Each structure stands twice: as C-alpha cells, then as structure tokens.
Amino acid sequence: MLETADAVLIFVALPGVDAEKVNLAIRGGVLMISGERVLPDELRTAIIHRLELPQGRFERRVPLPGGSLWHAAERRGPRLPW
Q1: Which of 63, 62, 64, 60 is closest to 3 using CA atoms?
Q2: What is the mean pLDDT of residues 1-17?
Q3: Which of 3, 20, 35, 43 has an alpha carbon within 20 to 30 A of 12's alpha carbon?
Q4: Is the pTM above the cut of 0.85?
C-alpha cells in the first residue's frame, strides 16, 4: 500500500484470476477484495501432483489509512486500473 498526496495505491497479486471475477468494495475504512480462481478447463481431468495456487473463492480485507478520502471512495466505489 502506497499513499501519495492525492491517492492511496494498493497492489494485489492475483495470478490466474480473471479480472472480471474480482469484486471490490470499501466499507467502514476497509477495502474488501473478493473473487474466484478457477482451474482452466484443460486441467480439470489432469492428475495434479502439486498445485501452489489455491482454487475457488477468496476474500481479502485491507484496512485503509485514516482520513476523509474513503468517504468519497465509498460513494463512487474503488477503481481498477484495467
């Protein structure tokens, strides 16, 4: 998390997650990131010996720094860079 004079930037690594399956919300000064990582169809019948990226739904909660910036963000919603 980085804070500049006019923005807070939060970088979250979500390898293998389709951007359309990511949900963002700000409530009570907490950024909630949720989504789903789905195993690609071509791997559904494979024998998986080791898988380092868990599959299925996930949710992360990131407490945001204090300040009135979040009241405006809660009204308009957080923005994705893509």
Answers
A1: 64
A2: 85
A3: 43
A4: no
